[in-house]
Amino acid sequence: MKIINCQVNHLKNPLGYQITKPDFSYVITDSKAEKQTAARIVIATDQELNNLIFDSGWTNEIDSLGYIADVSLEPRTRYYWTISAKTNLNEEATSSVNWFETGKRREPWEAQWITCKQKTGRHPVFKKQITLTKPLVSARLYICGLGLYEAYLNQERIGNEFLTPYVNDYNSWLQYQTYDVTNQLKKDNELEVILGNGWYKGRFGYERNSKENNYGDAWELIAEVRLTYADGSTSVIGTDSSWKVHYGPITASSIYDGQQVDMTLADTPEEQVLLSKRTTEKLTDRYSTPITIHEELKPIALIHTPADETVLDIGQNQAGIFRLHVKEPKGTKIRLQFGEILQQGNFYNKNLRTAKQEFVYISDGQEKIIQPAFTYFGYRYVKIEGISNLKKEDFTACSLYSRLPKIGEVKTGNEKINKLIDNIEWGLKSNFIDMPTDCSQRDERMGWTGDAQIFSATASFYRDTYAFYQKYLHDIFLEQKQAGGRVPAMAPSFGDKTTSSVWGDAACIIPWNVYLFSGDKKILADQFPSMKAWVDYIEKIDGDNLGWNKGFHFGDWLALDSKSDVKNYVVGATDVDFIVRVYYLISTKLTAKAARILGKKDEAVHYEKLAKKILKYIRDEYYSPNGRCTINTQTALLMTLAFNLIEDKTKIITALAKAFEETGHQFTTGFVGTAILCNTLADNGFEKLACDLLLNEEYPGWLYEVNLGATTVWERWNSVLPNGDISSDGMNSLNHEAYGSIGEFIFKHVAGISPLEEAPGFRKVQIKPLLNWKIRQAEAKYNTAAGSYQIKWILTDSTHVTLSVHVPLGCEALLTLPLAPQDIFTNNSNEMFNQVKDNKCILKPGTYKISYKITEDLHQIFSTYTPIRELFYNKKAKKLLIKSSPNILELPLKLREKSVRELSQAYIKDNPEYEKQLDQLDLALKPLNE
Ligand code: BGC
After folding, report:
1. How far is the CA of 451 from the centre of ligand 1 (A)?
2. Residue of the nearest CA to atom 2 in ligand 1?
């Protein structure tokens, strides 16, 4: 037995993070036991655990998903802790010694904010000499620099983080970071801090509102180096008027536009720094998790384009910086531009809109490896000018994103689905740069709340998102505090006042998802005021007059069923009023549930009542007394089922089947509908359709993108046309997180694992895989908050499946055996059937395996009796069909549901020639059935 994943506030050995009371979590592994029976946490101020400040004693009150120790913490103190646990098999284990170190908390700063004369142009380098006079035992640097900073000790980078101090509403709070610099200090030292513009003072903001100096126009720095000597004494070297500043080689920097460096410029003479008027009260221990380089990718090709450009292909769309080897004569201008796609074989970057995304470097003649500091690029292709004899090896793409430990992995037997899974994950990585961004390249890259909410469950399947979202949710709440509870459409909002249903509901949906995936109530306790403030805000605006519906709302953004004549119109056909009401209901219900969990009875009752009222309105307004939905779009019908809007779902299910028949089983959904599309279909008897939509290789569909060479998920279903042309320049990102939300379906239904609300954090799960012949097999390894699950199913042939499941200690799985014959539950000695209820096996911790004959033959039959749509899903079958009936492409979508035989009987009737042709087609299709 071992204890692993020991974390405080969902971080491993956190240094300088915001921690009010430590929230411990851990996982027990390598044990055959069923559960933990008792645990004990001790906290000490020394590594040997002699000076204990807390001892829980052996107790059964410690929950491995989250246990808050009631201790008061001192500033700038390292605490050591262990967790010991016993199981029902009388095993006992103790974790290794872990630590957490507090930041300055509310301790006053001895340092002062400093600044410099220049506010634009060459970027400042602040400097301080530090001489150690006696032996040192430890040293910390506490630092914040605006807009962005990079700190160096004796020319060596401090830490490995980029884009510090990160992005937030700098008017409400300023995060400083803490670094352990003990080993980097010598006797004589030079501390240098370079400042950049970043989100704080560089050009940033939504489209037409993008501007410079969003939060301030001056470069400012505050830093304290705190030294502890061997003799027990301490000293502080803080920023003050004794620091010096000069202006270095960086001449411009911006998140959107990139960076310019002129190495031929001599350093300016050192100047006196100025003291800033800024106070220290907004400085806060960090919430942001580190942005670091995660992947280093080498180009797969060096291309000389028809337009005579030199372009490197990284092979992967992603976000980050780069390293480039340079050795050019002094004065040579090197220019790199970044784009996501080639057009007609040439470099293309028009879809970046006004974002220049370029790096310009004027060489000083020295051979070097260069790397940008204060920007990032969303790119797959790099156009390079100014380098003679460029080689692929000279360039390395460095993917930047926030700390997001990988926890979930799914692999299927279908290579295209596997590629899609990979693309979703790259979309995640590229768009988790301190805030969940919509896209990673154009002049946006903002924390759009709608996109974030839609993708939050998927993200939480792949990665441990707790700490990341906690920071984002904190941003949301601070914005709400300034706006009477209103949640901005983007957080941080950069002053934008837009709000919208579905988007603002992120304030309730994301904390709920974090809770569901982590099982830690702390997120609900922290965010309850924000959840409540949002619902109260809507309630107030709504008044007696449905005021909330009257405001601006995005609706089913980018849906394909828009009735507008405008090409590529952005709002779908589903009544925005309906969407607005339903999301109001969702947020209200989540707030009520959170109140119940937190033991806030009065508030629970209030929001439960409000939810009832909203639901009654929705039913009166949008459903006939006999149970039909008055809005006949796919999205409205899916919402009805997903959010249980009416009790008797029969008519909705019929209407949904019809709505899909009418479009030839293509979806027409946008942001709202797509987020729930396949899950809802699968949960309501449309399992095959859900898989067909996932597997569809035609437009619109995820694999259409994969077939066109996508390496991330696009913003629009038709971002790129079949001939490889980009469909429009205006709002067209090839790396957008929203439609990656299909990842949730892949986990929940393809692999088959879902969290259950009654025991969140995956203490109790549902396992219910969907078997599909084209997917053939799926395997998920999932290190949940509660422990590590494994699920594997494989169709050994079209009528037999082998399924294995591992359930970790302390957990329970409700397993539905897919397509199982009824008699499987009787006379079976397999341990899986020890406990069965409602045809579900209740699995205790352990490993289970079963093989059985399924109740259907899943083999796909390709013939003239197969619906045309299904033939279209197979490239070869489609080709044969078109060859035999060239007009088939003009067939109304609705009729693609029929088979060729059915159509010929209905329309052509008794044409022996045509019958013959169909027999031939059957012969041609036959080999595809092998
Ligand atoms: C973004 C979105 C966002 C939307 C608001 C777009 O420009 O990229 O994904 O949610 O605006 O509707």
Report:
1. 7
2. 438
Please give the distance, rounded to the nearest whole angstrom, from the Cα atom of residue 730 to the centre of ligand 1.
12
Q: Which atom in ligand 1 lies closest to the alpha carbon of residue 554?
A: 12
H or E element that contains 919? helix 912-925
Closest by Cα among 26, 256, 122 to 809:
26
Which pLDDT value is given to residue 323? 98
CB distance 448 to ligand 1 below 6 Å: yes
Check pocket membership of 506 for ligand 1, CB cut-off 6 A: no
Q: Helix 449-462 and helix 466-482: axis angle, to 10°? A: 160
pLDDT of residue 107: 97
Distance 733 CA to ligand 1 centre (A): 10
The closest alpha carbon to 59, from 82, 41, 35, 43, belongs to 41
Please report, as a single letter, which amino acid is at residue 545: N
CA–CA dist 786, 4 (Å, integer): 11
How far does the centroid of ligand 1 lie from the alpha carbon of residue 666, in Å? 23
pLDDT tens per residue, range 269-326: 999 999 999 999 999 999 999 999 999 999 999 999 999 999 999 999 999 999 999 9
Pick the atom of ligand 1 nearest to 715's CA: 9
Query: In this model, does residue 827 exceed pLDDT 80?
Result: no
SS3 485: coil
For residues 426 and 439, is the Cβ–Cβ distance under 8 A? no
Q: How far is the CA of 564 from the centre of ligand 1 (A)?
A: 19
Q: Summarize the confidence of residues 404-430 as an average pLDDT.
A: 98
Cα 570 to middle of ligand 1, angstroms: 10
From the number of C-beta atoms within 10 Å of its C-beta (0-12, 13-18, 19+), residue 644 rates as exposed
Q: Ligand 1 in contact with 557 (CB < 6 A)?
A: yes
Contact at 8 Å (CB) between 370 and 324? yes
Closest of 613, 679, 686, 696 to residue 878, by C-alpha? 696
- CB distance 696 to 703 below 8 Å: yes
Which amino acid would we find at residue 157?
A: R
Ligand 1 probe mutation, 352, 441, 445, 451, most atoms within 8 A of CB: 451
Q: Are strands 368-370 and 310-326 parallel, antiparallel or unpaired?
A: antiparallel
Beta bridge partners of 370: 324
Rounded distance from Cα 447 to ligand 1 centre (Å):
10
- Nearest residue CA, atom 4 of ligand 1? 448
Alpha carbon distance 233, 254 (integer Å): 43
Is any ligand 1 atom within 6 A of the Cβ of residue 554?
yes
In this structure, the number of other CB atoms found within 10 A of the CB of residue 737 comes to 30
Rounded distance between C-alpha atoms, residue 503 and residue 491, angstroms? 10
* Token couple for 910: 């008794």
Quote the CA–CA distance of 889 and 902 in Å, as a whole number: 17
User: Over the stretch 721-757, which tens digit does the pLDDT of each residue have?
Assistant: 999 999 988 899 999 999 999 999 999 999 999 999 9
Q: Is the CB of 451 under 6 A from ligand 1?
A: yes
Q: How confident is the model at residue 914 (pLDDT cuts 50, 70, 90)?
A: confident
Banded pLDDT at 892 (limits 50, 70, 90) = confident
Instruction: State in Å, rounded, how far the first CA of the chain is from the last one.
Output: 49
Query: What digits encode the pLDDT tens for the residues 485-531?
Result: 999 999 999 999 999 999 999 999 999 999 999 999 999 999 999 99
- Among candidates 526, 523, 639, 516, which has minimal Cα distance to 586? 639
| 327: Cβ contacts below 8 Å, ≥ 6 apart | 366, 367, 368
The H or E element containing residue 294 is strand 291-297
CB 178 within 8 Å of CB 223: no
Q: Identify the residue whose tokens are 């259409």.
A: 704
Query: Nearest residue CA, atom 3 of ligand 1?
Result: 448
Kindly report the protein residue whose alpha carbon is nearest to atom 7 of ligand 1.
731
Contact 438 CB / ligand 1 (< 6 Å): yes
